[in-house]
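Hi there,

I know you've been waiting on this one. I reran it after we fixed the sequence typo, so this is the corrected version. Both the input and the resulting structure follow.
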Amino acid sequence: MSESSVAALGWYARRLSRMSPAEVAWRAREQALRKTWSLRQVRTAKLPALAAKRLAARVDRQFTAILPPDTADLVPDEARAAIIEAADRLMGGEWEVLGTARTDMTRPDWFHDPVTGRRSDPERYAFRINQRSEEQVGNIKQVWEVNRLQHLTLLAAAWYLTAEDSYAERVAEQLCSWWQENPFLSGVNWTSGIEIGIRLINFAWIRRLLDEWPKVGDLFERNDLALRQIRWHQQYLAAFESRGSSANNHVIAEAAGQLAASCAFPWFRESPRWRKQAAELFERELAHNTFPSGINRELASDYHGFVAELGYFAALEAVAAGFPLSDPAWRVLCAMTDAMAALVDSHGQPPRQADSDEGRVVLFDAPAHNRWPALLAIGAALFGELDWWPTTPVNAGSVLAGALAGGTRPVSGRPYRCPTRFADAGITILRTARADSPEIWCRCDGGPHGFLSLAAHAHADALSLEVRYAGVDVLADPGTYCYHGEPEWRSYFRSTIAHNTVEVAGQNQSSEGGPFLWLRHARAKEIEVADDGGTVSWSAQHDGYLSLDPPARHCRTVRLDRVSRAIDIIDEIQGGDHQVSIAFHMGPAVHAELRDCSAVLSWPAPAAPCIPSSPPAAAWLELPPGLQWTLHRGETDPILGWYSQGLGQRVPAFTLLGRGLAPQGKPLATRLVFLELGQFAQRGYPAAAAADGEQHVNGEAKAG
């Protein structure tokens, strides 16, 4: 047996260990169904013969969930211009996919991965494809991202705003190409329900945005292949549902896609049944996946926004079809929206907690790495802004969503001031007042290790923190970088040492069993949060090191003094003497100089309209003297000193690493003081190397 086969068997054994007996039985049934469904596979060569057969669809097919007249006139000029600019680049073949610049988008190959150069077999039965195998499919995220067809929704939005037929013609050309080259159960694009659900939502919006295009009926309701594809997508979702240890954002996407399609395209005899079942599944799983506070239970910031967006578009289709979701479901979506408004920093940036793949559902506006401002704009259109919300500029997405919803929906019991603590999720934000610019923002993590038995998108980051100054990552969560194909990088970015927390005895707090599998979960709990106005403090502990000899607990207290603009971090390892490593990771804009047991941090002035003339900022970091401190940047043996802005992207960044013995009962104290560069001498600190107007590249000061 080959080494790869042995590794695969080991993974399956570990995966099986995380399932309940009921889930094992259900998965056995599903595997049998997948084998049976091989008889239902449609190959490209069979499509002409299939077209001659009668399709089980209603004769009176119409698309009725259209936008109110003149909605396009409400889109702001700035958003309109950005959409047209992005659409024109796309028309020229240019598009960025998860950090990879593509130039082939005039006629994309739906099975080609530009990162590895591999092309999967489009005729292979979907359930015989190992989507985790880079040898078979290449980088599957790269392949799937284009096949979500969100770029076609953007082109449809460009047509909606301009009536330029070239946009609509390109949409029709590529939709027909996709439908022709991806018949039922053939190829890698039929291997995941989440992808199928997202495609259905985009089908609905493409049809809606092109409603006044003369050829749209020939593209959709009078197109036999389009009808078959819409039905095939829903048949798949009705048969294969994520359950048990996999019932995370995947089941939300499946239910949202099924609900949206059965409402927007009620053209099949199964449509009423599909709509009812999808609505019940969506409402149940949305509640199951969300804490009462509104935080998504996967505790991965990016997936919180992704699930909220799925919820928005499922709910909108249900309203447009006359089958609105229940009041409790709307309350959950509203709570998720208010939580997003509370979590963002002064620059509208969300936390970087746990996994991120920049997942999005529908693309109306020009693409941006940070989706949360656009999502908050949609949330404002659906629920209305509260007084404490950050500013949420109107964009195309919020205009279209608000128009389809028919106005805002009142929800009672919303918070009257900005929440800073989400106790059920273990998330606490320590911050200065948003009006007290520049803002100091600090996220403290004292919550569960992810969701369900897999905790698939969790990181080993208990008691970690992020610190930002005027939106700049100072003490940063390094991010995710990759999901598949580079296991050593996947493990690093999920590890304890890759986060601003304490590693004990060289081990992760939680034990990983695969790229989306954790075998042992550290359990964290918050102990106290106190705020007297001038000072706010947070303390928590976790049990991830109880398996050591002697057993150990990590306890941490973080205190923000708003007056002196300083953060104190106190770490203690209870349960005996242990070797520890404390890591502090900087954002890519930060330059670090290590001076014995202290460090000077400096960074250029952030470019933001709210602070137009700020000088370069800096901080003094006093480190625990009992440890040996070293400075790292962009290292690969071992991996250390990296920052990932998004999937497929990484850049070198400074990391301070302290190693040594942490005696029982002896706290390790760190202090971070924020200063302007000119204040170093005034406060008695050694001068910082950076000067006004400088930028730091590759660790050296270079004139900006």
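Quick highlight: The radius of gyration is 26 Å.

Best,
R. S.
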